[in-house]
Amino acid sequence: MKYNIRTSIVIGLVVIAMCSFVTGCANKKDSAAANSNDDLSNKSSQVENQLPSSNDENSSSSSTDFQAPEEGYYSNDYDEILKIQKSDDNTYNIEYSITKLLYVENAIGTYNSETGVLSFSGDDDGGAAFEADVVNKGDHLDVAVTQSSHKDAVGSVQSFYKADDPR
User: Fold this and answer.
1) Mind listing the pLDDT tens digit for each residue in 67-113?
2) Does residue 153 lie within any of the structural domains?
3) Chain CA centroid to CA 147, Å
4) Same domain, yes or no, for 90 and 129?
5) How far is residue 102's CA from residue 107's CA, in Å, rounded to a whole number?
6) What pLDDT shows up at residue 17?
7) Domain extent for 80
8) Nearest 5°: phi and psi at 82?
9) How far apart are CA 7 and CA 100, in angstroms?
């Protein structure tokens, strides 16, 4: 009976010691993770402090540099086309189509270097007013339809990739 009581006490102490050890390790991990997060936030704020603010004398007036869409022929998987030609007066002549819906030829566009948007307007093949915006995304151009007699087209965005002109 004495052995059973002593054994129970020893087992109880071992269990308590193990629980304390596990809890202590968990607390160390939590505090290590917290310290790691503090280090990351400190580094983040240090990097933010190193970035030029818009009030700095050396910072440029524009925080984002936009690239105008290049002249040329563009297409996509739906055989839709976008052809851009720059005129001498810094306007753009645009040819554009949405497969089985509309075709726009001789639309006139202007590029806004502050927004990075080439906006163009003209009449579609049905004689209705049409407008869209072109944005250079680096490896492709996105065209967002802003006005059309085809209500389903308004708000749609198509991606076009540089291609060889088949004509």
Assistant:
1) 999 999 999 999 999 999 999 999 999 999 999 999 999 999 999 99
2) yes
3) 24
4) yes
5) 13
6) 59
7) 72-162
8) -145, 115
9) 87
